[in-house]
Amino acid sequence: MSTVTTDVSITPLRQRMQHDMMMRGLGQHTQQDYIRHARRFAAFLERPPDTATAEDIRRFQLYQHERGVSATTINGAVSALRFLFAATLGRRDLARSLVIIRYRRKLPDVLSVEEAARLLEAAAGIKYKAALGVAYGAGLRVSEVAHLKVDDIDSTRMLIRVEQGKGRKDRNAMLSPQLLELLRMWWREGKRRSVMLPHGWLFPGRSYTDPISTRQLHRAVQEAAEVAGIRKRVSPHTLRHSFATHLLEQDVDICVIQVLLGHSKLDTTALYTKVSTRTIHAVTGPLDRLMALMAAKAPPS
Q1: Is 141 annotated as catalytic?
Q2: CB atoms within 10 A of CB 69
Q3: Active-site hit among 34, 128, 136, 272
Q4: Which one of 35, 36, 168, 197 is at 20 to 30 Å from 12 when CA atoms are compared?
Q5: CB-based contact 58:97 (threshold 8 Å)
Q6: Active-site entry in 14, 127, 141, 241
Q7: How is domain 12-96 classified at the architecture level of CATH?
Q8: Under a CB-based contact definition with an 8 Å cutoff, are residues 145 and 217 in contact?
């Protein structure tokens, strides 16, 4: 298990926090987020976080609200500081004084099947078509797409192996024949360019020894959406949302979709029932039933 990168100015407290995160199996991205939030808190205090009081925490959270910091960022800071105070400093009393913001989750933007086809067609080159094809065709998160390796594609079992996804969980994702053909087209092109190493990254970055960055994938999606004339706010995660919604509209069992997405809770997957147009259209409205009843009772003219 790797820890976040350290530097020469690392403090004993930060090193202890990193060791605590490593021992508890927190993912590298989570470690980086927690350290970043702890640094911001220390900068606000202008002294080490282990000297903080409950009043300091209250002032920090009020400061975040007054500065218009998003609920997501505030809650991320709460998670990081709760870990710092409870796990590293043994100050559960301070951890309990941190307040989570309750907010309504927004419905995700979803592409229609036609829009998804236009987006993939507009992607710049076979490498990005294949990468975005994985995001849409298998429902992978952008970080999971970026960190796929050639050996993760199992054409015999028609599966994509996702290692250490969100929550450091492994899972299998679906591999359709069309997606496999798209990946083979990219593999042949990558071999021709000499950027596809044996057992290497499926989507190499600018240096073929490194994976493509999530920033590159975000930019590729946004550029493809502009070329395709799609006005919705589109990101790689939009393709994952669209994957789940389109499966639901094809009457795939929601528990199967949960497994394919790697969701721990069914409630998370159930969000897609709120954006599925087929689910909405399948319901007969009360006014329609009333009008049908009235028409049946009306005397013939």
Answers
A1: yes
A2: 16
A3: 272
A4: 168
A5: yes
A6: 141
A7: Orthogonal Bundle (1.10)
A8: yes
Whether 232 is a known active-site residue: answer no
What is the pTM (predicted TM-score) of this model? 0.66
Contact partners, residue 15, CB within 8 Å, separation at least 6: 6
Q: Looking at 89-153, list the stretches that DSSP marks H as alpha helix, in order from N- to C-terminal side.
A: 92-96, 113-122, 126-138, 142-146
% helix, strand, coil for the chain, step of 5: 60, 5, 35
CB 116 within 8 A of CB 234: no
Query: Hey, is 282 helix, strand or coil?
Result: coil
Tell me how far the alpha carbon of residue 246 is from its chain's centroid.
Answer: 18
Task: In whole angstroms, give the CA distance from residue 144 to residue 142.
Answer: 5
Cα(231)–Cα(76) distance, rounded to whole angstroms? Answer: 30
Q: How far apart are CA 1 and CA 157, in angstroms?
A: 29
127 noted as active-site residue = no
122 by DSSP, 3-state: which?
helix
pLDDT digits (tens, 9 = 90+) for 75-130: 999 999 999 999 999 999 999 999 998 876 677 788 998 999 999 999 999 999 99
Class assignment of domain 113-280? mainly alpha
Our answer to whether residue 237 is catalytic in this structure is yes
Per annotation, catalytic residue among 147, 240, 241, 246: 240
199 as an active site residue: the answer is no
pLDDT in tens, 168-221: 678 888 899 999 999 999 999 999 999 988 899 999 998 888 999 999 999 999
Higher pLDDT, 300 or 212: 212
Quote the Cα angle for 37-41-45, to 5°. Answer: 170
Q: Which of 149, 171, 218, 237 is catalytic?
A: 237
Task: Work out the pLDDT band at 280, boundaries 50, 70, 90.
Answer: very low
Q: Name the active-site residue from 59, 166, 171, 218.
A: 166
| Greatest Cα pair distance in the chain | 91
Which regions of the chain carry the CATH code 1.10.443.10? Answer: 113-280
CATH 1.10.150.130, the chain: domain bounds? 12-96
